[in-house]
Amino acid sequence: MASISKGRLFFLLLFALGAALFSFSSFAQNSAPKDGVILTLDGPVTPPAADYLAREIGRASDAGKELVIIEIDTPGGLMDSMKTIIKAILASDTPVATYVSPQGARSASAGLYIMYSAHVSAMAPATNTGAATPIEIGGAPAEEPRFDDPRDANPAPAEGGDGAEPADDAREAAPETLEDRERTAADPLSNDDALRAKIINDSVAYIRALAEERGRNADWAESAVRDAASVTANQALELGVIDLIAEDIDDLLTQIDGRTVATAGGEKTLATAALRLERIEPTAIEKFLNFIANPNVAVILMSLATTGIVIEMWTPGSIFPGVVGVMCLILGLYAFQVLPFNWLGVALMLTGVVMIVLEAYTPTFGLVGLAGLLVFGFGLFIVFPEGFRVSTTVIAAIMTIAGGLLALILFAIIGSRSHGPMIGAEAIRKREGVVDEWNGREGWVIIEGERWRARSDKPLERGDKVRVLEVDGLVLVVKQAKAGGLLGGLQMKEA
Questions:
Q1: Per mean pLDDT, which range of 80-84, 146-150, 427-431, 459-463 is the poorest?
Q2: CB neighbours of 421 closer than 8 A, spacing ≥ 6?
Q3: Is the distance from CB of 121 to CB of 236 less than 8 angstroms?
């Protein structure tokens, strides 16, 4: 009996020791600091920005990170790029928190959709969000479709006359017929209005789906799409657009610690009290592509491309301006590919370039070139919609520099056309030289460093100054030049 008790006691001790070791290892594992990452969306939502965010969100999910924070300050961007980011967020096993920061930042248009897709949505004080109405690439949005009753276009007959309208109460009492329903139907939409309506309705459905998934205010999100509604951070919190307002990243981590969110891998409780954050920046190529996708940089590149190509056309063989122009054109076309632009602005820019080129071949004394420069500048101003508009300072600087360069080239061309021929018989006529050898009425003369055979109707001597009258084949017809000035006759002749 005693031996059995000792055996049981031994096994109980072993079990207790194992349980203690297991508990200690679990505690050590739970108490170990966890990792998170901070990503940045600063500027338009472009393909390079989408590639960067989607890649890093996927890596964080695969690595089992505790949290991904996206700091947002954006005016919006391309819908395809926005959807790339949203798909990465929805597919992530790691919770993603969007944080509109720093103070004074905004998350407009595409940024609002990204905020609605995040597991946690936060804003810093003095920030704003909204204005999510999609803008059609290639121009301004069409007018709002009309849904007026077609009968409104025709005035009602006078009261008591033939075909008079029934009274309102009588009309309400009368049963509605198929003909009444056909007459009250809206006018058919034009192609432009139908396309606009499809884009708006699709965007509304998309953001409402995100709002329903995350439990946020879907009705206000619809108004942000249809009516371009915008709100401040405090209003967004009251309306249920965001989850919280945080002063900084530390405050954000404190407020979301212990919050449970639903991810693609299931529900997860955030443990952010001692979270170690690593800031991951875009690659050098992504930074460069994002830089040239800035509207101000894009128009500078297109302006340099235009100037370089025009200079190459005016002075063929310069090579360098043409090479720089082509390189800037390629980069500029890439930037225009990822930015929403207005075709009218592009057409005006091209018209301005054509007018500047015509200035080189038309005697307008710079009027056509000046008009082309103004048209080009106006095209720069309207080429991008609101939110992407080019700075007027940048436009003024571009026009000043381009105008100065084109003026210098114009003056150089006018100067080159003002002097006489530079080569051939016409070039040497009326030039002056000096007699090198002479015998009777023929001899050799030096004209601007070249030795020519010459003849004259009067005898000359070595050292005499002569002027070319005519060119007879390879023989110059010359005459003695008059002495220049009071001391002309005192010139010494060679012995």
A1: 146-150
A2: 427
A3: no
> Buried b / exposed e across 322-352, counting CB within 10 Å, b at 16+?
bebbeebbebbebbbebbbbbeebbebbebb
* Separation between Cα atoms, residue 116 and residue 241, nearest integer Å: 8
Model confidence at 182, in pLDDT bands (50, 70, 90)?
very low
Amino acid at residue number 381? F
* Residue whose entry in the numeric block shows the structure tokens 């990170």: 65
Model confidence at 118, pLDDT cuts 50, 70, 90, reads very high
Beta strand extents in 264-326 (DSSP E only): 266-269, 276-279
Assess contact for 420 and 426: CB atoms under 8 A.
yes
Which of 117, 133, 98 lies closest to 233, judged by CA? 98
Q: How far are the Cα atoms of 3, 24, 173, 181, 458 from residue 164, in angstroms, in the given order?
A: 115, 92, 17, 19, 115
Mean pLDDT of the chain: 78
Task: Give the predicted TM-score (pTM) of the model.
Answer: 0.60
**CA 89 – CA 67 distance, rounded (Å):** 12
Indicate which CATH number applies to the domain containing 88.
3.90.226.10
Q: Which residues pair with 129 in a beta bridge?
A: 107, 231
298 and 413 share a domain? yes
Are the beta carbons of 468 and 478 closer than 8 angstroms? yes
Q: Is residue 108 part of a domain?
A: yes
Q: How many domains does the chain have?
A: 3
Element (H, E) at 476: strand 475-480
Which structural domain, as residue segments, surrounds residue 89? Answer: 30-139+218-284
